[in-house]
Amino acid sequence: MSPTTGLSIAEAAERTGLSADTLRYYERDGLMLEAVGRSATGHRRYSDSDLRWIHMVTCLRATGMPIRDVRRYGDLVRQGEGTEASRLDFLRLHRQHVLAQLAEVQEHLGAIDKKIGIYEDKVLREGLDLERAPSV
């Protein structure tokens, strides 16, 4: 996509599910790999490459990566060839954090499932309303 055929900020926002303000913030805060292209009138034009990077940033943020670490990862990518091992290490470390978070969420989900099972046994099978039943 050339700057004249890229997506407007509104179109990029719709495509990515982010707000235009968030896209501007990503650019202003140095989270984009390169400057977003501009039309002849100065309006932002997002390329396919920009959208792929925004998707990656969104994935990293959604898995709990702090902005400063997203920026560090972006810096490694911008440096290009020769940083692949560092990028791999960086992503492996983040993956370990995500797996730990998942394990914790699964543990919490197990507790919720257990409680649901108790309610199902009491409420559905015995017709009791535990919220209104007199305490014993």
Structure description:
About 65% of the residues lie in helices and about 5% in strands. The protein has five helices and two strands, in the order H-H-E-E-H-H-H. The mean pLDDT is about 90. Strand 1 (about 35-40) and strand 2 (about 45) form a beta hairpin. The protein has helices spanning about 10-15, 20-30, 50-60, 65-80, 85-125; strands spanning about 35-40, 45. The longest helix has about 45 residues, at about 85-125. It has two domains: about 1-80, Multidrug-efflux Transporter Regulator, Chain: A, Domain 2, CATH 1.10.1660; about 85-130. It has about 140 residues and is mainly α. It has a two-stranded antiparallel sheet. One of its GO terms (molecular function) is DNA binding. This is MerR family transcriptional regulator. It comes from Nocardioides luti.
Biggest sheet features: 2 strands, antiparallel
* Rg over C-alpha atoms, rounded to the nearest angstrom: 23 Å
| Oligomeric state, counting identical vs distinct chains | single chain
Task: List low-pLDDT spans.
Answer: none
Beta-strand content: under 5%
How many β-strands, per DSSP?
2
Head-to-tail CA distance between termini: 70 Å
Whole-number total of structural domains: 2
Please report the number of helical segments: 5
Based on CA inertia axes, which overall geometry fits? elongated
- Strand arrangement, largest sheet? 1-2
CATH names the topology of the largest domain as Multidrug-efflux Transporter Regulator, Chain: A, Domain 2
Domain HTH merR-type: 6-76
Organism: Nocardioides luti
Pfam families: MerR_1 (PF13411)
Keywords: DNA-binding
